[in-house]
Amino acid sequence: MEFPNTKALVLFSGGQDSTTCLAWALSRFASVETLGFDYGQRHAVELEARPQILSALRANFPAWGSRLGDDHVLSLDVLKQIGGTALTDDVAIAMSANGLPNTFVPGRNLLFLTVAAALGARRDAKHLVGGMCETDFSGYPDCRNDTLQSLQNVIRLGFADDYTIHTPLMWLDKAATWKLAEELGGKTLVDLIREDTVTCYRGDRESAHDWGYGCGECPACDLRAKGYARFVSAS
Ligand code: ZN
């Protein structure tokens, strides 16, 4: 094991990326806890999917199940209070004047990781794992490797402790993320991610596709579907 006697805290939203990150952490760390945020998302289906995914991981991967510890859900209502995005308000997905899609929630990942570090201080988990990705991304500046490397330094200074931020998906496109899931947990994990995770910005859990559930039209579904098609055609 890469990190024996070490605990990781995984930012776990219930989507494809964070579920893949969770499997990545479970295959490397002696113990793993999970953290989700309730920030008044318009669609709570991702949050509702989380316990289901954790149960399915425990049932299908007993070795991982023995390492999987407490799950935490913290409220970050402040993001809803600030509002003004397609993820927190009832507005259509569109490009903003600053060139970023309005699915960008300003400050979200910075807040998430800072709060994760604070929880990690209490849970003795100084390895923080997140699914941020600079490839295939929507131009979110808080997903950039430079941002997260800098934030790691800020957290080390601000907490006076040796934190590490791990971003296993940083340089992967969506096809490679599906491939990583297959490498970590075989077809069982790929099927679990297809069935149980929610990535759709509209929170659609009704429309079934070969790549999972989703509206099939929003940018998140588009990325997931195209990535899955490239993954299948390459394997
Ligand atoms: Zn969608």
Secondary structure elements and pairings:
Layout: E1 3-11, H1 16-26, E2 29-38, H2 45-60, H3 62-67, E3 68-75, H4 77-82, H5 108-123, E4 127-129, H6 145-159, E5 164-166, H7 174-196, E6 208-209, E7 212-213, H8 219-234
Parallel strand pairs: 1-2, 1-4, 2-3, 4-5
Antiparallel strand pairs: 6-7
Zinc ion binds next to helix 8.
Describe this structure in words.
This protein is an alpha/beta fold and 235 residues long. It has one domain: 3-Layer(aba) Sandwich (Rossmann fold). 46% of the residues lie in helices and 16% in strands. It has helices spanning 16-26, 45-60, 62-67, 77-82, 108-123, 145-159, 174-196, 219-234, and strands at 3-11, 29-38, 68-75, 127-129, 164-166, 208-209, 212-213. Helix 6 links the parallel strand 4 and strand 5 (164-166). Helix 1 packs across helix 7, helix 2 packs across helix 7 and helix 5 runs parallel beside helix 6. The protein is globular and about 45 Å long. The protein starts with a strand and ends with a helix. The model has no long low-confidence stretch (mean pLDDT 92). The structure holds zinc ion. The site of zinc ion (ZN) has 10 residues, from helix 8.
Summarize the structure.
By secondary structure, the protein is of the alpha/beta class. The chain has helices at 16-26, 45-60, 62-67, 77-82, 108-123, 145-159, 174-196, 219-234; strands spanning 3-11, 29-38, 68-75, 127-129, 164-166, 208-209, 212-213.
